[in-house]
Amino acid sequence: MEKTSEYLLELKGLTKTFPGVVASDNVSFQVGHGEIHALLGENGAGKSTLVKMIYGVLQPDGGVMHLHGETYAPANPSAARAHGLGMVFQHFLLFDALTVIENIELGIAPELAKGDLRSRIVEVSEFYGLKLDPDRLVGELSVGQRQRVEIVRCLLQNPRLIIMDEPTSVLTPQEVEVLFRTLRQLASEGCSILYISHKLEEIRALCHKATVLRGGKVVAACTPAEESAKSLAEMMIGDVLVPAKRTETMIGAERLRVDKVSLPSTHQFGVSLKDVSLSVRGGEILGIAGVAGNGQEELMEFLIGERLTRRADAIVIGGVEAGRKGPDARRALGLCPVPEERLGHAAVPGMSLVENTILSARVRKQLAGSGIIDYARTREFMQEIISGFDVRTAGMDHAARSLSGGNLQKFIMGREILQAPSVLIACQPTWGVDAGAAAAIHNALIDLTKNGAAIVVISQDLDELMAISDRIAVIANGALSDPEPVAEVTIESIGRKMGGPSSVEHADVPH
Amino acid sequence: MDLVANILIGVIIAATPLVFAAIGELVVEKSGVLNLGVEGMMIIGAIAAFATTIETGSILGGIVAAIICGALMALLFAFLTQTLLANQVATGLALTLFGLGLAALIGQGYSGKSAPPFPKLHIPGLSDLPVVGPLLFGHDFLVYLSFALGIGVAWFLNRTRAGLIVRAIGENHDAAHAIGYPVVLIRYATIMFGGACAAVGGAYLSIVQTPLWVENMTAGRGWIALALVVFATWLPGRLYLGAYLFGGITIVQLHSQALGLKVEPQLLAMLPYLATIVVLVIISADRTRARLNAPASLGQTFFASH
Predict the structure, then answer these.
(1) Where are the domains of chain A?
(2) CATH top class, domain A254-498
């Protein structure tokens, strides 16, 4: 029945237009049998639109796809799965309150769910070195284990093509190794993999072929192993890349001190902070590495004053005990935060950029000194943010949610940095922005330290932390390791501290 | 002994409408939708059943009419919240007010009439046993149905693939949609099931419990049913415990009046509601525990962006 074809998947002139933007513009490329094919591009280059069309989430406006030499036009994800496609999403499609086995059952065709699903899960997960306990609640698993659930769910359907969207962004270097071993094993068995990432070293190590997208178009096709990370990056951004450089700064007085803080998590599947201490001095950047969900959220809530402690001296900002002070009072002391969640935490989605600026900069920029909002002054400050951080928006009065992720990120970083904080706490400072803007944000952080500010950067991007931090600490299962100077650590040594699959405390989750 | 049996039978009759309404709402909430219109759907069920029974003389016809009308009320709610993406809380409150008003309008000509007696189960021998007979084998079929319904719902939610999908949608509608489940369609179905159940609860009031039509005769039972779902932490088994507890309080209040206890009747009438508040406070105090079974998407508007 099946025609033999040189390629497993072939895209010809695939086009998709959204109002005001061509997300995918005449894209053509091929994926061979058993090939690990990288799809490379900045945010907004059109990778996810393309993948959604292949997986049947979106329908193309023009162009055709061939699978095994036959016309392929999936109407929805189930049709794509029926054709032997599997996808591991960046944001996992998992249900926290359901067990591993229930989650897997939900994600596969009803015929496959019949019979002894449990033993097949165990069999597949052991064969590919992805250990899983079928009866655990997904909410209790580490991020790496959750990804395993997604992958095992994919594999149970005997896929011929697996699409992986940024699979390593949430993994420790050791977990990445395990994942790569699994992917190579799959490829050797003839399963093709479409691998989406912007981590260039990984693509060089793993992928056979690469297609580079920019502005919705294919701009290059190459063999990653023959390219350097720098040349790949330049294909991606279409420009020469100048990375941020850390220069010597004067290390000043202690600006932020946290003293032995233990706090239970308020989230159902959260991680409690365990005896966390840290000290950051002026002119210094402290990097905090760690796999998502190891207490970063709880640490952030504590540092920025959303959760208060009984002891006032648990946190000292610029010499003032602040344990009993809320976010506004901490801003007055000079501590500005950039929380991880952009919409809903760092910005109110339905409010305009001007209003969002007032909410955050009111105290430090005296935008409402007498209780009445000074719009003229706010707009002046907004203009500074927009030009200083290249925020692309149709206007200051547009709602925060109308900005793209990268632009919103630039706006939020700009808003906090330009308040001239003496302590800046930034979670994932370059999340979602392109390489050029990331370098600009890094430079702005470095400039801030030259003016004597202390900075804490919480990030899962080790390359970023290695590039800009003076010292690096690791948060794992709610405990913070002693910071080490960046010159004395390696990716491997940090990776070990990040731990493999961390065991989340069961005490937090009554049964 | 007769008094005890009478009290227990009274408790069962008082609890049954609560069980119907709450079981329906439990399924709705498990799918991630908060329908505060239970009271409105109950009263519509009450008048639909009563009017149909009077006009046709058929009790079964009355119950079917209640099911249809309750489901239609729920369909209205589903259309507003799932298709037009209206706020669920506001729409639910509106549905209650609309239902109370509409039922009063329809019911104008039915005040003072009384429905034919509802047949009760009679198994020769068994039903004639003292105490145990009337307690276990002497009820109308709706009482037995209310138990079958709870067992059926528990089995459906925990043992079937369709039930798993309903739970998944209530837990994370975005993920369920991305996997390819028709979130809106399934919610339409659960909402209409909930409406039908609430209406049967209402019908029980007007054709079994009293059997009379009185304006506002649901008297807040829809709200108690809503509270019961939370009280039961979304577990069908615990829901019966709650419903019979509340039914019990209502009956004890009646009997204490009959026995001439010197307690202000208003104070006793408040009891079920006070108990609701106390239980809600106790449950809310332990947030992680209450959240364990709570559907994570409860009350959130679902909008498919692609």
Answers:
(1) 7-237, 254-498
(2) alpha beta
Interface test with B, best of A85, A93, A99, A266 (most B CBs within 10 A): A93
> From CA A23, how far away is CA A41, in angstroms rounded?
13
Give strand ranges (E) for A250-313.
254-263, 273-281, 285-289
Under 8 Å CB pairs connecting chains A and B tally to 59
- CATH superfamily placement of domain B2-122+131-293: ABC transporter involved in vitamin B12 uptake, BtuC (1.10.3470.10)
In this prediction the ipTM stands at: 0.84
- H or E, element range at A388: helix A375-388
Pairing of strands A36-40, A192-197: parallel
Q: What is the pLDDT of residue A1?
A: 41
Q: What are phi and psi of A362, to 5 degrees?
A: -50, -45
User: Which residues are CB-neighbours of B6 under 8 A, at least 6 positions away?
Assistant: none
B176–A contact, CB cutoff 8 A: yes
DSSP A39: E
Query: Which positions in chain A have a beta carbon within 8 angstroms of at least one beta carbon in chain B?
Result: 52, 57-58, 76-78, 81, 89, 92-98, 102, 105-107, 110, 113, 266, 268, 508-510
- The alpha helices in B79-220, defined as continuous H runs, are 88-107, 132-137, 141-159, 161-171, 173-179, 183-204
Residue with tokens 């220069």: A247
Per residue in A373-423, pLDDT (tens digit) is: 999 999 999 999 999 888 887 788 888 887 877 788 889 999 999 999 999
CA dihedral (A3, A15, A35, A433) in degrees, to 10, reads -160
Contacts of A251 (CB under 8 A, 6+ apart): A281, A282, A283, A284, A470
Q: Please tell me if residue B175 touches chain A, with a CB cutoff of 8 Å.
A: yes
**R_g of chain B computed on alpha carbons:** 19
Backbone angles phi, psi at A399, to 5 degrees: -65, 150
| A281: three-class secondary structure by DSSP | strand
Residue B171 and residue A98: Cβ atoms within 8 Å? yes
User: What DSSP letter does each residue of A179-228 carry, written as one string?
Assistant: HHHHHHHHHHTT-EEEEEES-HHHHHHH-SEEEEEETTEEEEEE-GGGS-
Distance in Å, alpha carbon of A91 to nearest chain B alpha carbon: 9
Chain A CB contacts of B181 under 8 Å are 106
Better-predicted residue by pLDDT, B257 or B26 = B26
Report in angstroms the alpha-carbon separations of B274 from A88, B144, B282, B285: 50, 29, 12, 17
> Hey, are the CB atoms on A95 and B292 less than 8 Å from each other?
no
Strand-pair category, A161-165 with A192-197:
parallel
User: What letter would DSSP give residue A2?
Assistant: P
- Tell me which range, A301-310, A406-415, B63-72, is most confidently predicted by mean pLDDT: B63-72
* Residues from chain A contacting residue B175 (CB–CB below 8 Å): 92-95
pLDDT tens for B194-223 read 999 999 999 999 999 888 899 999 988 999
Q: Does B113 touch chain A (CB under 8 A)?
A: no
CA gap B208, B46 in Å, rounded: 10
Q: Which CATH number fits domain A7-237: 1.10.150.130, 3.40.50.920, 3.40.50.300, 3.10.20.340?
A: 3.40.50.300
Lowest mean pLDDT among A17-26, A113-122, A381-390, A467-476: A17-26
Tell me phi and psi for residue B98, to 5 degrees. -60, -45
Nearest CB to B288: which of A95, A96, A510?
A510
CB neighbour class for A93 (10 Å; exposed up to 12, middle 13-18, buried from 19)? buried
Q: Where are the domains of chain B?
A: 2-122+131-293
Nearest to B47 by CA among B207, B198, B192, B208: B207
